[in-house]
Amino acid sequence: MRLAIADPPYLGRANRWYGAGRGHRGGRGRAAAHEAAAEWDDPATHVALIERLEAEYDGWAVAGCADPASTRVYEAALPDGVRRCVWVKGNAIPSGSRVSGKWEPVYVKMPEGRSAHRTGAAVNDVLIAGVSYRHNYVGSKPYPWTHWVLDMLG
After folding, report:
1. C-alpha torsion sign, points 77, 97, 102, 134
2. What pLDDT band is residue 102 in, cutting at 50, 70 and 90?
3. I want to staple 78 with a disulfide (CB 3.0 to 4.6 A). Which of 73, 82, 97, 140 is the partner?
């Protein structure tokens, strides 16, 4: 059984946080620089990720789709059988917009035979867990998030 968890950069923000972009306030908060980061600012790269996950894995999850532009791209590309789950991150840093994003969709394709009742432990499709700032870079997920996704994948 092959399982995958993908956590690509938000559409339109990859170069800022992972490439040659400015990061936040003079470069703070940037992760290690990646030469190909700007590719993730193209919607086609995100669609290709979904296609690859579907072709190569029995079950998978994708995070990093919180802004409206990303959500539209992902939901248009998702195959049948993918479940939209929600991560509520109450301690998320306020953004520069008036409406602060405190939740993020996580798309999960459960492996065949693992979604029925009594095929594993019951798991909620909503996780309430704060953002982990211990890792000191943008996009890191808290440990409960990883356990939650793995539990959903069975």
Report:
1. positive
2. confident
3. 82
